[in-house]
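HUMAN: Now follow token order:
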Amino acid sequence: MATQCNLKILKDRFYEWEVLTDENACPCRKLFLINEFEDWYHRELTTLKKDRGIISPKYQVIAFFDEFVGNINAKFVSDFQNLNPQGDDVYEMRITDVRIFGWFLIPGVFIAVSGVLKREAKGKSLKPYLKKVIKVREGLKLHQPDSVRSKVGIHELL
């Protein structure tokens, strides 16, 4: 019951990602973007040029999110091996040029809170991003459990 209540809270307050690149994709996971992340995605990522990747950061994020939401076999895709727990149940999605921070409400449901270009985060503390995720999660006043505990392996989350 708590999980259904928490999903309703997310659906009412945040943007739910829909697969953009494959109209035949059957969503097998959910991804929510908080409003601030969605603004960053549309405003900043649109203007940025690629760094290491062969496509722009925005399209790297689109491809990654589409893969996460629409590919049942995504747990075997190498990008998802780079989905790292950072402590306090915060996860970092590591894409070629972009880092995204958020948490898993339950396995298969990720909430994206903040993002940064890899080159801007390199060599810097991740604490501001982790704190932001925790602050957003606590501010929602979700029913417990409000997140998947970090001790769960990546295959169980996907």
Remarks:
- The longest strand covers residues 98-106.
- Residues 2-157 form a domain with the YaeB-like fold fold (CATH 3.30.2310.20).
- The mean pLDDT is 80.
